Amino acid sequence: MTCLQKSFSENFKNEECKILLDEPLKNHCSFRIGGPAEVLVIPLSEKVLIKVLTYIKERDLPFHILGNGSNVLISDKGLRGVTVKLMGGLSDLVYLGDGIIASGAGVSLINLCNFALKHSLTGLEFAYGIPGSVGGAVYMNAGAYGGEIKNVLYSVRSINSDGTDVTETPADELSFSYRNTDYMKNGRIITGAVFSLKKGNSDEIKAKMDELMAKRKASQPYTDASAGSTFKRPPVGYAAAHIDECGLKGRAVGDACVSTKHAGFVINKENASCCDVLELMEIIKNTVMNEHGVLLEPEVEILKD
Fold first, then answer.
1. Could you give the CA distance from residue 33 to residue 70 in angstroms, rounded to a whole number?
2. Fold of 93-219
3. Is 46 a catalytic site residue?
């Protein structure tokens, strides 16, 4: 046991949180890749999250924030310091009336969509099936099938990285663009969000959700281990089309492979390493640049020390 592991365990043994030491991070992300976290903590409340951030700041420790782990590639060496996982905690979900839903950052998008359906609220159908958390979806302005989180967002609750400032920010005071938000730059940690939806017909909402889920499963490697779309949409065309036209479907490095179902996804066939995926991503980028003159930028977030 490291000094940090001993100190953290002693400091937080009576707090509302789950603590895991030397926990394989491949168990906490959809890519199923990643070495051990020195300390993995899942705070069950915002109050405990603030205490964790204060502890980290006072000791100047390295730390990483993890949502549902659905859009990340984690180093084979794992992560030193403290990894804070929000999924599994911060799970409040409340209907406030007039189409307004308040959600904790750790709520899954699927649960949020089903909650909206329960109250006959429309606007989130596009997000049904995106395998992420509310916090992660807001962080990167997740979207699909013509919809984006920014279009239904009312406000965002966040904490600065040392836990001293909790702020509720109206969505219209934030900057959102394609897979880009202020939170990717300002270091603040999203703890919750409020969504503004419209009243609709529950049967029509359910039909749309089922339609988009069926479309997703038919066109994407939905059951394979991946981090979703590997690259962002480039200024010209679509990443998947460029990759496919370059003949890269099925291209593999170790157990990392370009999906034969959808070229926009790199999948982990069984025991791919982070190094395998990074090498394959570099091959894809170089090939597309050389053959099409298009620069592909990663959409997957790479977590490493």
1. 11
2. 3.30.465
3. no
pLDDT digits (tens, 9 = 90+) for 37-62: 999 999 999 999 999 999 999 999 99
Given 179, 226, 251, 259, the catalytic residue: 179
Q: Say what percent of the chain tops pLDDT 70.
A: 100
> Which pLDDT value is given to residue 130?
92
* Residue 240, token pair as written in the block: 């998947």
- Distance, in Å, from the CA atom of 253 to the CA atom of 295, rounded to the nearest integer, reads 21
Q: How far apart are CA 226 and CA 253, in angstroms?
A: 15
Asked whether the predicted pLDDT for residue 11 surpasses 90, the reply is: yes
- What's the mean pLDDT in 59-77? 96
Could you please state the CATH topology (level 3) that the domain comprising 3-85 is classified under.
3.30.43
The answer to whether residues 165 and 159 touch, using CB atoms and an 8 Å cutoff, is: yes
At residue 178 the predicted structure's pLDDT band, cuts being 50, 70 and 90, is confident
80 is catalytic: no
Catalytic: 133?
A: no
In the chain, list all ranges with CATH 3.30.43.10: 3-85
3-state secondary structure 50-108: HHHHHHHHHHCCCEEEECCCCCEEECCCCEEEEEEECECECCCEEEEECCEEEEECCCE
- The residue annotated as part of the active site, out of 23, 38, 125, 299, is 299
**Is the domain defined by 225-303 classed in CATH 3.40.50.300?**
no
The catalytic residue among 75, 229, 259, 273 is 229
